[in-house]
Amino acid sequence: MNRRAFLQSTGAVALAQAIDAQTANTAITSSVMIWTLKGPFEQRLEVASQAGVESVELVSEHINWTDAQIRDMKKLAQSLHLKMDTILAQSDWKHRPVSMVKPEDREGFLADVRQAIVFAQKLEIPQIILMSGDDVPGRTHEEQYASMLESVKRAGDLAAKANLTLIIEPLNNKVDHKGVFLSTCGEGLKLVKESQNPHVKLLFDIYHEQVQVGNVIRTMREAAPHVAVFHIADNPGRNDPGTGEMNYENIYKAIASFGYKGYVTMEYLPIGDQTASLTRATRSMRATLPPQSV
Known about the structure:
The chain is α/β, with parallel strands linked by helices and 294 residues long. The chain is built from 11 helices and 8 strands. Strands 1-2-3-4-5-6-7-8 form an 8-stranded parallel β-barrel, surrounded by 7 helices. Helix 5 packs parallel to helix 6. About 7% of the residues have low confidence.
């Protein structure tokens, strides 16, 4: 089903045309992390398209796809006017020896990066997410950070050869990812800078940073030149922006003030109908982040 036929079947043509016109020359690409939506993968793509999103992020949905399935999914996404912008390198990273902070796991980590590069090239995806791994008992923070930096430097060399971008994602260790090593965007930014590689950027998850530290706009301002993706969700609950304590209108205004050019990705758990929720969130973001000259 192509995008126009799908939208006509749902009575959403006018909305899609308005969003298409609004985003035609934007420097910011709207995206959604596909795991947050329900249903088969094809249905989730249709929901994203109907909501006016321009792109989608994958985690490990692609990991067992054959070349024929890759072609089919690319064709479906293109028919819905969707790009695919990001995949995760280390699938199931909590349970496999692919940590960045353990030197003994480095070869497994780099093997995952190489595999992710192959998938990214086949799917025409420009970015690959890296996770630090969990804190290792008995090892100092400095030892683990040094291992993480060496891991990202070596992975960055692989990304540079493939002309892809690695994005480092800090996660909160207070609520959602107990035990994770890299838990603040401040340290994530330090890692990106010290990698000294233009193919290494930061994934700034605003929800995780709010849970872990707070003061997100101040940290965003410092990090923005090194950010490739902002992830969006409210706190508490990781639900729709505007349902919790965070003032997303001010956050979006701050992003606009930075002159940011990159992805703003919804990664929240929708309350109620997921299509209506994602449509509201996308329209609200676009109302505050107007088209900019690329």
